[in-house]
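FAQ
Q: What does a multi-component entry look like?
A: The components come first, one per line:
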Amino acid sequence: MDKIALITGATSGIGWATAELLAQEGYNLIICGRRTERLDELSEKLSVNTLKLVFDVRDRAGVKEAINSIPDSWKSIDVLVNNAGNAHGLSKLQDGDIDDWDAMIDINVKGLLYVTRSIVPGMVERGHGHIINIGSIAGKEVYPNGNVYCASKHAVDAVNNGMRMDLNGTGVKVSQVCPGLVETEFSLVRFKGDSDRSKGVYEGFDALTAFDVADLIRFIVTRPTHVNISDTIIFPTAQAASTIVDRK
Ligand code: NDP
Ligand code: 8X3
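Then the predicted structure of the entire assembly, as tokens:
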């Protein structure tokens, strides 16, 4: 099989858009998420070969089982996009919901590690591969009420740097993409389905779209072998920092 990319969180937002743009680059795609019907919809839309893997990144055994179930013809994964993740809640630490904290740490940090640990040894064996970690501006700075989400994305930032060091000399590239405000289902998840509140996050300015971020991922993935874009921050023009947004 030609080039293969595995994308976690392909059922929505940045992951979905990345699937569409990497398909345009000729990648066959292993698309992952929990919502089977979304994976079916995406697969029908794409003109490349797709393999759908339904698993929850929090489930350590489930991740292993899903990755082990990949048929031999799909095993030589060239690109891993570690994208699955969300914020859960936005409140002062002293008022925080501990279930939300568990979710963010388990999904954004441990889930990313479980998937990476299952896939990267194959890349090392083949002497070739590219990991794209989706971090956040929340992994570069902290904002009020963001506490544990910011901590989870700071962990991604650290793991991204650690991976790049540990994989140096193996032929495996490691890159991070840190977006600011992107209008996806992200805020709907953060605010537990409160659509008025989530729409408000993107009001009064032009937020990034998922495709803006996917386009950066495509750029990073399509650089020549000797070039690694190791880290990037992508903001909407109206945003200068997590809490500085020019709303009209
Ligand atoms: P969406 O909510 O649109 O997408 C999140 C994706 O993650 C979905 O495909 C979802 O799939 C998947 N996911 C969530 N939880 C799990 C889980 N337990 N197991 C497997 N998959 C899971 O948000 P975005 O596209 O915006 O978010 C993608 C990434 O970008 C995240 O890591 C987020 O932190 C990051 N990011 C987002 C920003 C934004 O402003 N939107 C800014 C900076 C970073 P399913 O529910 O089907 O499992
Ligand atoms: C998502 C962007 O500002 O909500 O990581 O943290 S923000």
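Q: Is there any commentary attached?
A: Sometimes. For this entry: DSSP finds eight helices and nine strands in the chain.
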